[in-house]
Specification:
This protein is mainly alpha-helical. It contains eleven helices and no strands. The longest helix is centred in the N-terminal third of the chain and has 23 residues. The model has no long low-confidence stretch (mean pLDDT 90).
Length: 213
C-alpha cells in the first residue's frame, strides 16, 4: 500500500504536473470570465448584480437611480414587466452589457495566453485585478450578509448566498496571481519553441536561470 501511495505521489509531483496545473488554471479562469461575461447580456444576470453596483462607491454612478433598487428587485426566473422596465431606465442593462464585454475580453486574453505570453500577461493582470473589485462588495453591499429577520444568525460573519458567491473570488485572485507570475517569468526567460504543456514551470526555470547568473 505504501508503494502505491508513493507511486501516486510521484506521479502528482512529476516535473510536468505544475505546468499542467498552470495551463488548467488559465483555461479555468477563461471559462469563468467568458461564461459569466456572456450572461451579463441576459436580463436576469444584470438584475442580480444590481445590489452590488448600486451600493459600490466606485460603480453606483453608472446607474441613474441607484438608491431605488430595492423595491424593483426580482428573483431569478421571475418576469415582471414593471421591474424590467425600471431596470432598463436605471441603465442596469446598459452597464451590464459593458461589464460583460470587459469580462469576455479578459477571458479571451487569458485563453490567448496559451499561445502568446504578452497577450496572456495582460489577461492575467486584468483577471488578478478584477477580484479586488468584487471582494470589495463584502464591505459595501448589505445583501452580502444574512439580514436580521428574526433568526439569531445574521450580519457578520454570516454570509448570504450573494456573499458566499463573492467570497469564492478569493480563489480566483490566487489563481490569477499564479498565472501572472508564471507568465512574467516566462517572458523574462525569453522565447522558447516548446509547447505550453511541455515546457517546464517558469517558476522552476526562472529559479535555475537566476542560479546561473
Amino acid at each position: 500500500m505504501n508503494m502505491i501511495i508513493r507511486q501516486g505521489l510521484s506521479l502528482i509531483a512529476a516535473p510536468r504536473s505544475n505546468r499542467i496545473g498552470i495551463v488548467a488554471m488559465k483555461i479555468a479562469i477563461a471559462i469563468i470570465f467568458l461564461w459569466i461575461g456572456a450572461l451579463k447580456f441576459v436580463p436576469y444576470e444584470a438584475d442580480s448584480i444590481t445590489p452590488f453596483v448600486a451600493n459600490s462607491p466606485v460603480m453606483s454612478f453608472f446607474y441613474d437611480h441607484p438608491t431605488e433598487y430595492k423595491e424593483h428587485m426580482t428573483h431569478e426566473g421571475e418576469f415582471k414587466p414593471a421591474q424590467r422596465q425600471w431596470q432598463a431606465a436605471n441603465n442596469t442593462y446598459g452597464f451590464s452589457k459593458g461589464l460583460g464585454a470587459l469580462e469576455i475580453a479578459i477571458g479571451a486574453l487569458t485563453l490567448g495566453g496559451l499561445g502568446s505570453r504578452r497577450v496572456g500577461l495582460l489577461g492575467a493582470a486584468l483577471a488578478f485585478a478584477t477580484p479586488f473589485v468584487t471582494l470589495s462588495f463584502l464591505f459595501t453591499t448589505p445583501e452580502a450578509w444574512v439580514s436580521a429577520l428574526g433568526d439569531a444568525q445574521h450580519g457578520f460573519p454570516y454570509l448570504s448566498g450573494a456573499g458566499r458567491l463573492v467570497l469564492k473570488d478569493v480563489a480566483l485572485l490566487a489563481g490569477a496571481w499564479l498565472v501572472l507570475v508564471d507568465t512574467a517569468q516566462a517572458l523574462l526567460l525569453g522565447p522558447t519553441v516548446e509547447t505550453e504543456i511541455a515546457r517546464p514551470s517558469s517558476v522552476t526555470a526562472f529559479a535555475r536561470s537566476r542560479r546561473t547568473v
